[in-house]
Amino acid sequence: MKKLIFAAAALALGACSSSEIVYRPAEQKLPQYIKRIAVRSFANKTQQFGLEEKITLRVIDEFLKNGEYSVSQESAAQGVIVGEISHYILTPIQYDVNLVPTVYKLNVVASVRLLDREQNRYLWEEPGLQVTKMYSAANLPNGLTEEQAREALWEILAKDVVLRTVSGFGSVSSASQKKLPPATEIQQSTSTAP
Residue range 74-98: average pLDDT? Predict the structure, then answer.
């Protein structure tokens, strides 16, 4: 009898392990007709001059390095990256004994989205893409200037935009066409239900 119970338990455990549920979301790529991407010059809503040129060029370079989509003029592209730098915040976070800043935190926030020119709609949107760089003052060992810290940020931001476009279309961390209706619509539909 004990052997029979042991065999039944082993069989049940074996059945449980083979029916294990694993969540694997489907890989989401851009529509197949998008072959060429253009990068519209970023808008700069900050007080810092010239940021838009640097980030636009860095995003173009990153798309060229990636190579999955060709980069072209906007008139010939099926997809267009549209971006805006909304915040540029440089904050000293550490001081020496004379109250001279020794460590800084540079924070940049941008809004980036991908326009599908054929359907005339945005496929995805990152409304608050944020990158941060903490660095030591230039007069310290391994320190950076503000310009060098900005260049490091542009590289991170450009890689994020390309990664989001190439392999992250429709992710749950951002706005996309696959989203819930506004709460008012949900409330209206539940209030009219019998």
Answer: 96
Confidence of residue 22 (pLDDT cuts 50, 70, 90): confident
Structure tokens at 98: 């004379």
Question: What was the pLDDT predicted at 30?
Answer: 83
Torsion-angle region of 99 (φ positive above 0: left; ψ -120 to 50: alpha; else: beta): left
pLDDT of residue 130: 93
Size of the chain, expressed as the number of residues it contains: 194
CA–CA separation, 156 vs 163, rounded Å?
Answer: 10
Q: CB–CB of 165/159 below 8 Å?
A: no
Give the Cα separation of 153 and 12 in Å (integer): 54
Q: What is the pLDDT of residue 117?
A: 94
At 11, list the tokens: 């069989």
DSSP E strands: which ranges in the chain?
Answer: 36-39, 43-44, 70-71, 79-95, 101-116, 121-136, 175-176
The 10 Å Cβ neighbour count of residue 163 is 12
Which domains are assigned to the chain? 29-174 (3.30.160.150)
Judge whether residue 44 has pLDDT over 60. yes
